[in-house]
């Protein structure tokens, strides 16, 4: 159902403009919305299989890991990716962290301090629900630190990610984009339904008012931190079914490129079968 691999189709290319993103589009997908649920189910199984393989291999010494970085404005669908995509995996091998407003302790350290503590261990898939990129997004938009402090962070992030990749972590970065109107609808839903109140934060409206500044900050983030070793992917996210399918494919593709197989037995299988039969 994909005419083009999502990792190729969605990869950020220098010159791409946030203002030009068609958030309703479904790049590379030529199936119909009615196919989405079945396909999502099938691809979740494939993701789960590869994720378990990564975890299994760490038991026999493979030290590689994967890090999914989720960025996007409120209601973009980050939580849905965690629940409906990553949630299909084996929790033993998943390390989920959401990054909110830093604590006093976190603020007393370098901005990457809390990030380093949350990195995936060998065999794990780390999931960052927001990330170190908040330190060049909300921090920049709200002047939480002066430009002399946030400006060098782009390069610091690149150096940091280069080190992660060199030590065996595959990084999958996704930036999810919804329209201002779609965000309004989703926020309205959160205010209408008691089962959604927990996702609502009055501050979301304040962030909404700063949309143009966020667009600029997202543009700078993409321009300056999309590297060959850790590229950004732009996910049109007005259609949740599409963003979920696309990110599932990005994860599957990244895991496939790790060229894994099930770890070989560390024992003589036939001998063990005979022993078992005899007891
Ligand atoms: P949520 O993801 O809806 O739970 O909201 C978390 C909030 O924390 C968002 O408004 C983020 O922008 C904010 N946040 C995350 N990281 C930082 C940071 N480093 N500095 C300031 N605010 C942050
Ligand atoms: Mg929120």
What does this entry look like structurally?
With 279 residues, the chain is an alpha/beta fold. The protein has a single domain, classed as P-loop containing nucleotide triphosphate hydrolases (Rossmann fold), CATH 3.40.50.300. It is built from 13 helices and five strands. It has helices spanning 6-9, 33-58, 78-84, 104-107, 113-117, 138-141, 147-150, 153-166, 180-192, 203-209, 211-225, 240-256, 269-277, and strands at residues 65-72, 94-98, 125-129, 169-177, 232-236. It has a five-stranded parallel β-sheet, with helices on both faces. The longest helix has 26 residues, at 33-58. The chain is globular and about 70 Å long. The mean pLDDT is 97. The structure holds adenosine monophosphate and magnesium ion. Residues 41-260 form the Polyphosphate kinase-2-related domain. InterPro entries: P-loop_NTPase, Polyphosphate_phosphotransfera, PPK2-rel_1, PPK2-related. This is Polyphosphate:nucleotide phosphotransferase, PPK2 family. Keywords: Kinase, Transferase. One of its GO terms (molecular function) is polyphosphate kinase activity.
